[in-house]
Structures
1.
Amino acid sequence: MSDRLSSELKYDHPEPRTIDEFLDQIRSQYCKEDLKRIEKAYHYSETAHEGQIRRSGEPYISHPLCVSSILSELNLDAPTIMTGLLHDTVEDTAVTLKNIEEEFGSDIRLLVDGVTKISQISFRNTHAKQGENIRKMIVAMGKDIRVIVVKLADRLHNMRTLNHMPYEKQARIAQETLDIYAPIANRLGISAWKVELEDLSFRYLKPDIFYELAQKVSKKKKEREKYIDEVRKILNSEMGKRAKIKPIIQGRPKHLYSIYRKMTQKNIDYDEVYDVLAFRVIVESMAQCYEVLGVVHSLYRPIPGRFKDYIAMAKANNYQSLHTTVIGPDGERIEIQIRTHEMHLVAERGIAAHWAYKEGGRADDKSAMRFEWLKNLMDWHRETGDSDEFLENVKSDLFESEIYVFTPNGDVKELPEGSTPLDFSYSIHTDVGNRTVGAKIDGRIVPLKHKLKNGDTVDIMTSPHQKPSKDWLKYCVTTRAKSKIRAFIRSEERKRSVALGTELLEKEFRKHGYKLESFVDTDHTNKFLESIGAKGIEELYAQVAYGKQMPLKAVERMVPDFRKEEDKPKEEDNSSFLGRMFKSNKKRKGTSLIKVDGMSDLLVHYAKCCNPIPGDPIVGFISRGRGVTIHQAACPKTFEIDPGRRVDVEWAGSEHAQERHTKIRVVCHDIPGLLKLMSDAFTANGVNIHNAQIKTNNDRKAICVFDVVVKDTSQLTRTIQSLEKIKGVIRAERMHYS
Ligand code: MN
């Protein structure tokens, strides 16, 4: 790996053994003042670590010195270099953060504090704790990205010297590096570090395979070098001839871990991994990149589907290059990356390259340095309370491969593979996400669950009547979309439970001749709320809605000197029929019915015995802890339920109601072709068949039971009518109760 591009990186230096060696190495990168501060930090750290010895037997200061040297290779700013030197002082020596601030200022204090905190995070604990810990790390990163860069350099040096660690620790540290640090380096675009972290982890985790593979790769070294030379010569002369370009061309085998990953993913042997060789062509300008691509494709046949234009569509970590895989000389597959010097620097150093371009890399650059995904992670951190959920999100965000899709304006969105229009729309704005009904991809309408492909242009279709449902969670993969949908459902359910609970309580109060409003904010009520642990009246309503508090109980507790209805003198009993009608009408107006719209949620369930669908006359019953269960009004089961739990419900008639299952039974003659006609009848009415069971009996009749998905009773009725019109059908009917 040592030959990797080292010639191309301006600041790639060997490990310094003394501060003077280090200062010599970095003299051209920093101004005099910075060098002085760096030297001061070194001596401060050396004194603090005095007498401490690394496992390798070297004085401890050799480690922070190497960490800073690694950092300086990315041309990071002086505070970062100083932090590298000081990063272990607070954790491992008597030095305090206050000391650091007094000596070096608050900026360095914050950085050292951040690194110390990350070092204290352990990733080997149980699942939930790991989520919590990654969360902490992300928060630390969000505050100042330099913290994580120092931590990565620290880990890189520790991995380089891992052989001095006891065997059991090696595997654990290597696994943690592979799981957490390498993906983060990748996300920050620091590919030089990512590659080295992966290979070092691989070496300690699977030493047998690692060394076997290393041997195989090096065995063919001579052969390969000849081959690389040959390709380089051809490319060079052709490019000079045809495009007058003098590029830098590098050829190398891919790093061992990536070869190993390919072998395990495809379940193949080393000999079967054919694109082991990767070439890199580095040119002066973007235009030259495309010229070179033209030359390469005219020389060697490109493999379809392997060309990627990351120049037009930069990756989220700002990586840019053209990638192609071609059949090179001797039928060998070779991968070629084409980029400019500047792109190359970004590719190797990632986030640090942008930062280095700006002199100093001070406060206002920090915000520019924060990559989009990091910002998103921070948002999610704020929104999710659940560390399991967070872990899942972070993992998928770190590891998923990406696709690039376009907005109609030509903006690029980067999304994980498997993303849908929902992921896309939530990446634009929550309000857009919440109102998404579908999308047009290259002019064609696709449903919400459609999986987007690289290069799709996605035009989101919205409707002001649309709102998210639980099902949506199945149709999206990004954290952002999922957490926004969950948040919406939570707030909707809260609203609904409060409304439903208010309704139920009002009804109960009226039943006993009281008005709920008069008892809402009394000392008596507040005491009651306190006794049930409710923070306010709304929480009581919600509890009532979920059946956690029974309405009668609440009335008894809220009304001082409560008397039951039956103990009270009856009133208005002799009123006329019309009077009663009038009264009940008025009453109906004042109380809105509980609306159900066919969607199941935490509050509303549909009884399995009668399976009501929109349009059916219905009735609801409060079930303890489960909200309201909806039955068909004529369902026999309803007679078994305590009438005191009964509530009035009504279909809301939402046009976006979830479709519901129901069964249709068809008795018909057993004639060929009839099933096809029936199936056509379903299709003609827009009804999907979910399942069908057909039984024939001796008298040449067949009984078919179709499990179908319908919107409402009118659609169902139409379908049954169509079925009955079919010649040969004797009878078609809905199966009501089971
Ligand atoms: Mn360290």
2.
Amino acid sequence: MRIVRAKDYEDMSRKAGDIIAAQVITKPDCVLGLATGSTPIGAYKRLVEGYEAGDLDFSQVKTYNLDEYRGLPGDHDQSYRYFMNTNLFDHVNIDKANTHVPDGLAEDYEAACAAYDEAVAAAGNQDLQLLGIGNNGHIGFNEPGDAFVRGTHCVDLTESTIQANSRLFDSIDDVPRQAFTMGIGTIMAARTILVMANGEVKAQAVHDMIYGPITPACQASILQLHPNVVLVADEAALSLC
Ligand code: F6R
């Protein structure tokens, strides 16, 4: 795992945004695995600026997002589809038909999850997979547990994730209790994985990801087995390393 130290959120966003931009420049028809949450917002802004400056062309890029809340339609302002549209897709020349987020309303969700994995594989897998990390070490919504789940699946969110994500909802009762997430096998199929982390609240998870035992109790620890991971993190997130 290569560690890129950043001073603060702005610096992390610039560095990570530039790594994604380099991917788009060097392979214009690349497949990007994307994440939501507070962490990547600044990096997406950097990509929008790159597009506006005429440096980036997204017309051939395909994207597959990590996850979506179960039960939220794509036009709900807390859905991850809405997040991606408003933070990135609406502001660059990407073809929305080439952007994919798990369907939060899928009724036959097992079939929908299997189809999602097949679509990622049929696209040739992710050239670059962007990840944030949960305070509890989750990646995507793969929560701490006793197994690593291979494919896209439905998860029960842990109390700590519901608590952490409630900051974005009117009330904690509004936070969905389940989500669909790419599995660990789908994530690990990416040729490059770019992890971003900022803030002291992530310090323990970042430490365990890099130096802890490889265990499903810290799902991010599996990244120790991937040959091409870059972590871009600020000083606070690296404070226990
Ligand atoms: C989001 C995702 C999650 C987040 C993680 C960190 O698509 O898959 O794993 O990356 O919960 O969230 P933030 O960035 O809000 O701290």
